[in-house]
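Bump. Still looking for 4-hydroxybenzoate polyprenyltransferase structure tokens.
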Amino acid sequence: MIFLLRFLLPSAGGTVPGTARPALLLGAAAWASAVAAVYLYNGVTDVGEDRSNGSVRPVASGLLPLATALRAAGTLAALAVVLGALVSAKMCLVTAGFLLLGYGYSAPGIALKRTTPGTIAVVIGGGALTYLAGLLCAGLPLTPAVLAFCTAMCLWMGLVGAIAKDFSDAAGDARHGRRNWTVLHGARATALLAAVSAVTIGAGLLVCALSPAGPGLLPPAVVLLGGALALAGVCPGLRQGGTRAERRLPYRAFMITQYAVHLVVLAHPIS
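Sorry for the wait, here they are.
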């Protein structure tokens, strides 16, 4: 759902040309297929860590057999490329690029997920490609305000979400050879970095909103900064011996903020 919100955001409030409306629908279907393929494949390659961490993801919990998940991921990836090609050659390339990023994140031998810098690069890249795909399908120009928003949210994904997601899974990640910052430096030190990043990004978008080039940015900027402060508020309470739910709080704050910010933009579009 959050990927579809990102995809649709560039067209929020814009007058989408009649010829672009079918492309927007086809593009959304292509992107949903690509995202599902990437996450299914990730669930297959993460099965060891997920089970060590007590995850209830479908593959790890046994609800979805590994072979079925792999077949579905391959089918959805092929469908995404075909649907992207029906939109345009550029959309096909962007879709393929997103799938390649997802493969590089999870694939044995590459596994960019093993380190935090690798994860940050994939997450920011995937976010940027999602916004770009939405722009291509809507046939709308990229305004300075939309660029500022998309940049802030890509940084939010990479420098906050990609870090906070590991707080609850450090034990299993370490057993399976991951070298993310939570494993290397501990949850508290890494949480401090995530908190500082969150508040900095929120404040940065607010500065953009107050500039002449930022009409319409104020509502999402206020929500983003509020979410950043809430995330920063729960980070100091992290402790290694806490429950998984407690260690998951920063990531939940990150996700809730993401949804809230995008929904605000859909309700009050950026001009």
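The CA atoms of residues 199 and 228 lie 5 Å apart.

Edit: fixed formatting.
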